[in-house]
UniProtKB/TrEMBL annotation:
Gene Ontology process terms (BP): methylation; pantothenate biosynthetic process
Gene transcribed to yield this protein: panB
Function text: Catalyzes the reversible reaction in which hydroxymethyl group from 5,10-methylenetetrahydrofolate is transferred onto alpha-ketoisovalerate to form ketopantoate.
Keyword flag Cytoplasm: yes
Protein name: 3-methyl-2-oxobutanoate hydroxymethyltransferase
Length: 286
């Protein structure tokens, strides 16, 4: 693993953007690493795109440990951040640290991500003091979707912009090594990026962040049906390719076109003799 939190901060200073992508299993992590992404996020978005939930809320710590461990096996040379799932870091610090320990020791993550603003600063500070890098996450925070009124763009009025700036600065002060800005107006995201000494990583937060993150399944349109999102650019439609391939497979099985001669293994006549006997084979041929 070549990248670390010190190098990320240096990249911000040099104006070198950070590329981040989610991954949830061994093959997606392997492909992401081969593509050269800087960071992999094992997001609790796996609830939506892998586990079939309507939100991230049902995702458990066991889910996150399992999927983070799979990603770590596939991307051994990439910096891996694991999401702390819903309500695993809002109780006592001992409970929080137990969850963090599991993601680091069992999941082999290099850092954890936490959603929230001022209310989690003490928790961020305690986790960082325990030796674990923390990536913060403000703006649209999916774990709080019911309290913020749905999936709405943040920073659209002066009061909200000031709130986001205050939260970002407090999280930096608490020791976060970077901050994800999700669905934040471009102007506010740019202002926060200028004010902070740590990298900002945007998703739906415009062009001025220090890096960008997208969901694996959005980049590759790997879903059925796929729902378009304004802030996403699709680089390949593998969902359509997979569907077409599976459809052809089913059709060929039904038509007995698969398996064909090149897919089978032939036995010697002696093997058939041992099964049926020469006399039996002759009788069956009449």
């Amino acid at each position: 693993m070549a990248l670390n939190v010190i190098k990320m901060k240096k990249m911000k200073g040099e104006g070198v953007p950070l590329s981040m992508l989610t991954a949830y299993d061994y093959p997606s992590a392997r492909l992401a690493e081969e593509a050269g992404v800087d960071l992999i996020l094992v997001g609790d978005s796996l609830g939506n795109v892998v586990l079939g939930y309507d939100s991230t809320l049902p995702v458990t710590l066991d889910d996150m440990v399992y999927h983070t461990r799979s990603v770590a096996r596939g991307a051994g040379n990439t910096f891996i951040v694991a999401d702390m799932p819903f309500m695993t870091y809002h109780g006592g610090i001992d409970e929080t640290l137990r969850g963090v320990r599991r993601l680091m020791q069992e999941g082999h993550a290099h850092a954890v991500k936490m959603e929230g603003g001022l209310e989690i600063c003490d928790t961020v500070r305690a986790v960082v003091n325990a030796g674990v890098p923390v990536l913060a996450h403000i703006g649209l925070t999916p774990q709080s979707v019911h309290t913020i009124g749905g999936y709405r763009v943040q920073g659209k009025d002066p009061e909200d912009a000031r709130r986001l700036m205050k939260e970002a600065k407090a999280l930096e002060q608490a020791g976060a090594f970077g901050i994800v800005l999700e669905l934040v107006t471009e102007e506010v995201a740019e202002a926060i990026t200028r004010e902070l000494g740590i990298p900002t990583i945007g998703i739906g937060a415009g062009r001025r962040c220090d890096g960008q993150v997208l969901v694996f399944h959005d980049v590759l349109q790997y879903a059925s049906p796929y729902r378009e999102k304004r802030f996403v650019k699709t680089y390949a439609d593998i969902g359509g390719v997979i569907r077409d391939g599976l459809t052809r497979y089913v059709q060929e099985v039904k038509e007995r076109a698969f398996p064909a001669e090149e897919h089978v293994f032939a036995a010697d006549e002696s093997v058939l003799d041992s099964l049926y006997g020469a006399a039996g084979e002759g009788a069956n041929s009449k």
